[in-house]
Write a structure and sequence with these properties.
about 220 residues, elongated, 8 strands
Amino acid sequence: MSVDELHLDIQELQRLLEFTNRPNVQAALTKAIEGVEEKLANLKVAQEAKNEAKAESEDGKPKTSHLSLPVSKIRTYGWDQSEKFVKLYITLKGIHSLPKENIILNYSKKSLKLVVRNLGNKNMELIINNLAESIDADSSSHKVKADELVLLLRKASKTQWSALTQKDVKPEEKVPPYNPSEDPSAGIMNMMKKMYDEGDDEMKRTIAKAWTEGRDKSGGGMNF
Protein backbone atom coordinates (compact mmCIF):
# COMPACT_ATOMS: atom_id res chain seq x y z
CA MET A 1 0.00 0.00 0.00
CA SER A 2 1.33 3.45 -0.92
CA VAL A 3 1.72 6.58 1.20
CA ASP A 4 -1.12 8.28 -0.71
CA GLU A 5 -3.47 5.36 -0.11
CA LEU A 6 -2.74 5.38 3.63
CA HIS A 7 -3.39 9.14 3.76
CA LEU A 8 -6.77 8.55 2.11
CA ASP A 9 -7.58 5.81 4.64
CA ILE A 10 -6.79 8.17 7.52
CA GLN A 11 -8.93 10.94 6.04
CA GLU A 12 -11.86 8.55 5.57
CA LEU A 13 -11.60 7.26 9.15
CA GLN A 14 -11.42 10.82 10.49
CA ARG A 15 -14.58 11.74 8.56
CA LEU A 16 -16.36 8.77 10.13
CA LEU A 17 -15.10 9.83 13.55
CA GLU A 18 -16.66 13.27 13.14
CA PHE A 19 -20.14 11.80 12.61
CA THR A 20 -20.29 9.41 15.56
CA ASN A 21 -21.16 10.22 19.17
CA ARG A 22 -20.96 6.75 20.70
CA PRO A 23 -17.85 6.38 22.91
CA ASN A 24 -17.20 2.76 21.93
CA VAL A 25 -17.35 3.57 18.23
CA GLN A 26 -15.15 6.64 18.74
CA ALA A 27 -12.59 4.54 20.61
CA ALA A 28 -12.56 1.90 17.85
CA LEU A 29 -12.15 4.50 15.10
CA THR A 30 -9.43 6.32 17.04
CA LYS A 31 -7.54 3.04 17.46
CA ALA A 32 -7.93 2.32 13.75
CA ILE A 33 -6.59 5.77 12.87
CA GLU A 34 -3.58 5.26 15.13
CA GLY A 35 -2.94 1.89 13.48
CA VAL A 36 -2.97 3.36 9.97
CA GLU A 37 -0.80 6.29 11.11
CA GLU A 38 1.71 3.80 12.50
CA LYS A 39 1.75 1.96 9.15
CA LEU A 40 2.22 5.28 7.37
CA ALA A 41 5.09 6.27 9.66
CA ASN A 42 6.79 2.90 9.16
CA LEU A 43 6.40 3.16 5.41
CA LYS A 44 7.91 6.66 5.40
CA VAL A 45 10.79 5.45 7.56
CA ALA A 46 11.47 2.61 5.13
CA GLN A 47 11.35 4.96 2.15
CA GLU A 48 13.65 7.50 3.78
CA ALA A 49 16.08 4.77 4.79
CA LYS A 50 16.08 3.51 1.21
CA ASN A 51 16.71 7.02 -0.13
CA GLU A 52 19.54 7.64 2.33
CA ALA A 53 21.13 4.29 1.53
CA LYS A 54 20.96 5.23 -2.14
CA ALA A 55 22.57 8.60 -1.43
CA GLU A 56 25.37 6.95 0.53
CA SER A 57 26.05 4.54 -2.29
CA GLU A 58 26.29 7.46 -4.72
CA ASP A 59 28.78 9.60 -2.80
CA GLY A 60 30.36 6.99 -0.54
CA LYS A 61 29.95 9.15 2.60
CA PRO A 62 27.93 7.97 5.63
CA LYS A 63 25.10 10.28 6.69
CA THR A 64 23.62 10.91 10.16
CA SER A 65 19.89 10.26 10.19
CA HIS A 66 17.07 11.01 12.65
CA LEU A 67 15.65 7.61 11.69
CA SER A 68 18.04 5.83 14.04
CA LEU A 69 16.99 7.94 17.04
CA PRO A 70 14.49 6.69 19.66
CA VAL A 71 10.97 8.17 19.67
CA SER A 72 9.63 9.75 22.85
CA LYS A 73 5.91 10.53 23.25
CA ILE A 74 4.98 14.01 24.47
CA ARG A 75 2.55 13.45 27.35
CA THR A 76 2.70 16.74 29.26
CA TYR A 77 1.37 20.04 27.97
CA GLY A 78 -0.99 22.83 28.94
CA TRP A 79 -3.78 24.48 27.00
CA ASP A 80 -6.09 27.46 27.07
CA GLN A 81 -8.25 29.31 24.58
CA SER A 82 -9.30 32.67 23.27
CA GLU A 83 -12.24 33.57 21.10
CA LYS A 84 -10.44 32.44 17.93
CA PHE A 85 -7.74 30.00 19.04
CA VAL A 86 -7.06 26.98 21.21
CA LYS A 87 -3.42 27.12 22.33
CA LEU A 88 -1.22 24.21 23.42
CA TYR A 89 1.94 24.96 25.41
CA ILE A 90 4.67 22.32 25.21
CA THR A 91 7.94 22.68 27.13
CA LEU A 92 10.83 21.26 25.09
CA LYS A 93 14.29 22.25 26.24
CA GLY A 94 16.43 23.50 23.38
CA ILE A 95 13.71 23.50 20.73
CA HIS A 96 14.51 27.09 19.79
CA SER A 97 17.93 25.90 18.59
CA LEU A 98 16.55 23.43 16.05
CA PRO A 99 16.25 24.14 12.32
CA LYS A 100 12.68 24.93 11.22
CA GLU A 101 12.48 21.78 9.12
CA ASN A 102 12.92 19.64 12.26
CA ILE A 103 9.48 20.69 13.51
CA ILE A 104 6.74 18.97 11.51
CA LEU A 105 3.05 19.66 12.17
CA ASN A 106 0.04 18.15 10.44
CA TYR A 107 -3.41 19.50 11.26
CA SER A 108 -6.78 18.11 10.21
CA LYS A 109 -10.33 19.10 11.13
CA LYS A 110 -10.36 17.08 14.35
CA SER A 111 -6.75 16.03 14.98
CA LEU A 112 -3.12 17.07 15.00
CA LYS A 113 0.25 15.36 14.77
CA LEU A 114 3.53 16.92 15.90
CA VAL A 115 6.97 15.47 15.25
CA VAL A 116 10.13 17.16 16.52
CA ARG A 117 13.23 15.59 15.02
CA ASN A 118 16.59 15.18 16.74
CA LEU A 119 15.94 17.09 19.96
CA GLY A 120 18.37 15.90 22.62
CA ASN A 121 19.29 12.87 20.50
CA LYS A 122 15.70 11.67 20.21
CA ASN A 123 12.57 12.34 18.19
CA MET A 124 9.55 13.78 20.03
CA GLU A 125 5.98 12.99 18.97
CA LEU A 126 2.51 14.17 19.94
CA ILE A 127 -0.69 12.82 18.35
CA ILE A 128 -4.13 14.08 19.40
CA ASN A 129 -7.15 12.58 17.68
CA ASN A 130 -10.79 13.46 18.21
CA LEU A 131 -10.52 17.09 19.29
CA ALA A 132 -13.52 18.37 21.21
CA GLU A 133 -14.48 20.74 18.39
CA SER A 134 -13.47 21.30 14.76
CA ILE A 135 -10.49 23.46 13.81
CA ASP A 136 -9.47 25.26 10.63
CA ALA A 137 -6.44 23.18 9.67
CA ASP A 138 -5.19 25.58 7.00
CA SER A 139 -5.21 28.55 9.40
CA SER A 140 -3.60 26.72 12.33
CA SER A 141 0.08 27.29 13.03
CA HIS A 142 2.78 27.24 15.71
CA LYS A 143 5.32 29.49 17.38
CA VAL A 144 8.76 28.58 18.70
CA LYS A 145 9.90 30.29 21.89
CA ALA A 146 12.80 29.70 24.26
CA ASP A 147 12.42 26.05 25.36
CA GLU A 148 8.74 26.12 24.40
CA LEU A 149 6.54 25.30 21.43
CA VAL A 150 3.09 26.88 21.18
CA LEU A 151 0.52 25.28 18.87
CA LEU A 152 -2.17 27.65 17.63
CA LEU A 153 -5.33 25.76 16.66
CA ARG A 154 -7.66 28.08 14.81
CA LYS A 155 -11.26 27.42 15.85
CA ALA A 156 -13.70 26.62 13.06
CA SER A 157 -16.30 28.54 15.07
CA LYS A 158 -16.29 30.78 18.13
CA THR A 159 -17.55 27.96 20.35
CA GLN A 160 -16.15 27.87 23.88
CA TRP A 161 -14.39 24.50 24.32
CA SER A 162 -15.19 22.67 27.57
CA ALA A 163 -12.31 20.22 27.03
CA LEU A 164 -9.49 19.59 24.57
CA THR A 165 -10.66 16.17 23.33
CA GLN A 166 -14.09 14.66 22.85
CA LYS A 167 -13.49 11.94 25.44
CA ASP A 168 -12.94 14.60 28.14
CA VAL A 169 -16.17 16.48 27.40
CA LYS A 170 -18.56 16.02 30.31
CA PRO A 171 -22.24 15.60 29.41
CA GLU A 172 -24.45 18.45 30.54
CA GLU A 173 -26.59 17.63 33.53
CA LYS A 174 -30.23 18.04 32.62
CA VAL A 175 -32.38 19.95 35.10
CA PRO A 176 -36.04 18.85 35.11
CA PRO A 177 -38.43 21.65 34.13
CA TYR A 178 -40.28 23.40 36.94
CA ASN A 179 -43.83 22.18 37.40
CA PRO A 180 -45.91 24.68 39.43
CA SER A 181 -48.57 22.03 40.14
CA GLU A 182 -46.08 19.68 41.75
CA ASP A 183 -45.85 19.53 45.55
CA PRO A 184 -42.51 21.18 46.51
CA SER A 185 -42.06 18.81 49.45
CA ALA A 186 -42.43 15.84 47.11
CA GLY A 187 -39.61 17.21 44.96
CA ILE A 188 -37.38 17.61 48.03
CA MET A 189 -38.15 14.06 49.17
CA ASN A 190 -37.34 12.68 45.73
CA MET A 191 -34.07 14.58 45.69
CA MET A 192 -33.10 13.27 49.15
CA LYS A 193 -34.02 9.71 48.16
CA LYS A 194 -31.84 10.02 45.04
CA MET A 195 -28.95 11.34 47.14
CA TYR A 196 -29.46 8.46 49.59
CA ASP A 197 -29.56 5.81 46.85
CA GLU A 198 -26.45 7.15 45.10
CA GLY A 199 -24.45 8.17 48.17
CA ASP A 200 -21.78 6.31 50.13
CA ASP A 201 -22.26 4.93 53.64
CA GLU A 202 -21.40 8.25 55.28
CA MET A 203 -23.92 10.07 53.09
CA LYS A 204 -26.61 7.49 53.91
CA ARG A 205 -26.01 7.87 57.67
CA THR A 206 -26.13 11.68 57.44
CA ILE A 207 -29.39 11.72 55.46
CA ALA A 208 -30.99 9.05 57.64
CA LYS A 209 -30.11 11.00 60.78
CA ALA A 210 -31.45 14.28 59.37
CA TRP A 211 -34.63 12.58 58.19
CA THR A 212 -35.17 10.83 61.53
CA GLU A 213 -34.84 14.11 63.41
CA GLY A 214 -37.28 15.79 61.03
CA ARG A 215 -39.75 12.92 61.34
CA ASP A 216 -39.67 13.06 65.14
CA LYS A 217 -40.56 16.74 64.98
CA SER A 218 -43.27 16.50 62.31
CA GLY A 219 -44.64 13.01 62.89
CA GLY A 220 -44.13 12.08 59.21
CA GLY A 221 -41.38 10.39 57.35
CA MET A 222 -40.11 8.55 54.34
CA ASN A 223 -38.73 5.07 53.90
CA PHE A 224 -35.43 4.77 52.03
